[in-house]
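Could you help me review a protein record that somebody else here produced? This is what I was given.
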Amino acid sequence: MRNIVFTMIFTLISFSGFSFQLSAQEESANSIAVEEILVTARKRSESIQDVPVAVSALSVQQVERGNIQRVQDLEKLVPNVEISDMAFAGGAMSAGIRGLTFDDLEKTFETTVGVVIDGVFAASNSGVDLDLFDLESVEILRGPQGTLFGRNTIGGVIQINRTRPTREFGFKVKLDLEEDNTTDTKMIFNAPLGDNGGLKLSLRKLESDSFMFNVTRDEREKARDLESASVALDFDLTENVNVQFIFDNYNDNSQHNLLAITKFYTNKIGANQGVFDLLGQGAGTSGDLSAANDYKTVYSAEPFYSGIQGNNMTFKVEWELDNHTLKYIGGNNDFEELMDICSWGSPGAVVTPNCVYPVVRDQNYEQTSHELQLISDTGGSLSYTLGLFYIETEANMDSGPVGNFRSQQEAEAQAVFADFSYDISEDWTLGLGLRYTEEEKDFAIQNYASFADKIARDPVSLSLARDFKDDNLQHKIVIQRNTDFGMVYLSHSTGFRSGGFNARGSTPESVGPFNSEEVETIELGIRSELLDNRLVLNLTAFTNDYTDKQEVIVTAADGSIVVDGVPQYCGTTCTFVRNAGEVSIDGIEFEGTYRATEALTLRSAIGILDSGYDNFEYDGQDVAADAQLNFAPDYTASISFDYVANVQNGELIFAGTLSAKDKFYGRFDPAVYNYELGANMAVDKAEKLDLSLTYNRDLSNGGTMTLTIFGNDILEDGGYIVRPFDAGAFAFATPQKRQHFGVSLGLEF
């Protein structure tokens, strides 16, 4: 793979001597160009084909025509991207880019993929499960984006911007009716505020039953129960000063269905383990996920509840100066997250009540951030963005009656950053980005031997108070060559993911701290526009070298894990965060769009990964040869189309996407598991076909009606595992339904 990268570097040099020339036969007399997409990957609005960053963006038209409803749906269209729901945290998203994924509920752990909503960086993966109904733009930046977006964007950034108030009276509503008693109602109302401003009100109500039938409880339980509301104000204070304010309130009382997938495995000291043998489930899974079996399961006595209630506030000021734009973006996110599980009971189980592992975890989280940007608009050879950033977070967790502890963490970070782009000549551009970050975390935890001890707050079996400090200088250097067919660039960048503490730690060794992880990336990209801009072809090759990569390892608490010579007896399970040493991830990404006719558009995306551990020190031995990088499929691929036919009084749009993903691992701990005997923590490769048929019609009053019939993953029935998770003595996973149908009706005035 690296040979490919270096070969492409020499290709960049060779492009300086010549350029492609399109023949007259290749150019269409009546050009039908691919729609230009503007992105803000460098904090300024630019054409996506001019940006020397591996960025994918979907237009609003593409989202609507392709029935792309949620952020999670983007994984089907973007190479080397893996996004899914996370069952263990409220409204949470497990996002991975180029093999770097965060898939945990702890707020003391940092994400690998940053999510930016309306300009505000979300430091937690909870509360970011957004619907794309109210969308202005969505961008996915792949690779480290630390110079402009900060810490904990080591894998990339998902940037979502919702629509601003239109400053005119308007109404937009959409009703989705789907299988499993799913109703999803969304509404947007716009109104002017005098001559210089506007108001936007957004509402959503989502309800859905589980697709599985719980034999233990003899019912099909409620799965999704979400209400959200948003108010946005947009006002011009003067001709040059604009102010925006956004307030969001959401209440997600969703429940998640989990399957027990634990089999016997052999631990390091040779003992057989497997809690589900006690329940008569030790030899297999807890259900047959098939339509023929009516998706019946005996997985649990109670559903797995992970609800979240919260508020977000965003305040933005934009001041247009003579040759610059000055921006302030302030944000506050405040939520309470409750996880409640009475798990893994089954008929005939000798447990009272029918509950083996009762856990209630109440988390409170708040973040406040401030960002100041100065963006040049001189029109000369030099363009730049200068900025200051500050963020503080507070996370509190209360857990019991299994795993009885209280933890608190306060963290703050401040940074200064600068990004420059200089046109050396008409064809060559040099870019340089720098960001310096300082951060500090104060952590405290109190562990108790029993639930009664925790209620009484005495006696304390473990009490620790520790702090963590770090600083980091990140950079990005880019050389860009403009050609007649497009652009070629070569970049070298660094990024880091903050270290810290483990809130589930029950021994001094498991609490930490653990170190920050760092990455060094070389990326080569080719951006081309051919056939009079009817064909867009983009190719990116990259190589990543990670040091001190953080690994979350959950093991049985039997003392078989030894840290610094101390056997770890952690109560029920042990959770550690280890810096695994060195990891190499190389890859290639291809994206293509072809406007075949005025009616037909074809798209394709292919991502290839070659990942592995170069060094993984675990309890004094190197396990790199056996370890598997989590959530890093060797390939992702998709082919999509949309065809627009004009019909009487409207248009008919037929759209579809065929996507594929290779096998990948959930949790992998080669020092503990014998996988010939143990739990299967892998997700099998899968192909999915999504189809939709949309009818748009203009109404006599000036409005528009939209009717869509859609089917997702229509080739297969049954279910499949999305997120396997290891909990030490047992394992479980989130199932997802295949072959799902629905209809939606939309009106806009």
Remarks:
- The chain has five helices and 48 strands.
- The domain at 2-30+54-406+416-748 is CATH 2.40.170.20 (Maltoporin; Chain A).
- The helical segments are 2-15, 60-65, 146-149, 451-456, 508-511.
